[in-house]
Design a protein that fits this description.
There is one protein chain. It contains 6 helices and 9 strands. It is of the alpha+beta class. The chain has 2 domains: about 5-110, 3-Layer(aba) Sandwich (Aminopeptidase), CATH 3.40.630; about 125-195, ACT domain (Alpha-Beta Plaits). The radius of gyration is 18 Å and the shape is elongated. Bound molecules: coenzyme A. Coenzyme A binds near residues 77, 79, 85, 90 and 118.
């Protein structure tokens, strides 16, 4: 596959990359990261963005940003439909991992959509389950449902939501379904990889 992979040099390349992701992923109106966000990220360090082009057309992108001093957060990863299953997604992720290392990061994190979980497992990312229920002080109810599972992080702050991240040691769809049914919880697998 004659694909070139690079980080943007000019702002217009960031705009093209963002629009490519937006068109395929069909961002909702309240999508948390808009074009200005990624232009600021680009101004901070172009290596947070990786673009794949074939015949001068964008065919894949990874858009990431700083999670904290040691971790890079991948916000969007997308490969054009015609080229999926040919290794481009893996190539883009390995390039962003290389870039993260040059930025002295030791971790990559991301939140996956259900359909992409298998992909991240294949390329060595470890899943943890994020669980959120509406209402403060509901941590005990969540814990009741996930007995015996290691809790990595929890918050029953004052933002109207109780949240927990647990280590499910793999993807557990039954647990997700049960939490959604019993507690009306919002759940999502968060993936990370040490570099
Ligand atoms: C997810 C995505 C980026 C993967 O890109 P890709 O170029 O098709 O992936 P690759 O060809 O590098 O696949 C690497 C491996 O993962 C597997 N794989 C790819 N997508 C998969 C999926 N959705 N579920 C399970 N396994 C998957 C491939 O079969 C391949 O396995 P192999 O090494 O045994 O052959 C691509 O499908 C995509 O753009 N999807 C729509 C957007 C999206 O969901 N992005 C992720 C948001 S969290």
């Amino acid at each position: 596959m004659s694909v070139t992979i690079f980080s943007p040099i000019i702002k217009e390349e960031v705009i093209d990359a963002y629009n490519f992701a937006k068109n395929i992923l069909k961002f909702s109106k309240d999508h948390p990261r808009d074009l200005n966000f990624y232009i600021e990220v680009f101004n901070e360090n172009p290596k947070y963005i990786v673009i794949a082009k074939k015949n001068d057309k964008v065919v894949g992108v990874v858009l990431s940003s700083k999670e904290n001093e040691t971790s890079l957060l991948v916000g969007e990863l997308v490969v054009s439909k015609e080229l999926r299953g040919e290794g481009l997604g893996s190539l883009l992720m390995s390039k962003i991992e290389d870039n993260a290392k040059t930025m002295k990061k030791n971790q990559i994190s991301l939140g996956a959509v259900g359909k992409a979980e298998g992909f991240y497992l294949k390329i060595g990312y470890k899943p943890k389950l994020f669980i959120q229920v509406q209402g403060n002080n509901r941590l005990d109810e969540i814990k009741q449902q996930v007995k015996g599972v290691r809790i990595d992080w929890e918050s029953s702050g004052d933002d109207g939501y109780s949240k927990i991240i647990i280590d499910t040691n793999g993807i557990n769809k039954n647990l997700q379904k049960m939490l959604e049914e019993n507690l009306n919880a919002h759940t999502q697998y968060l993936f990370s990889k040490g570099l």
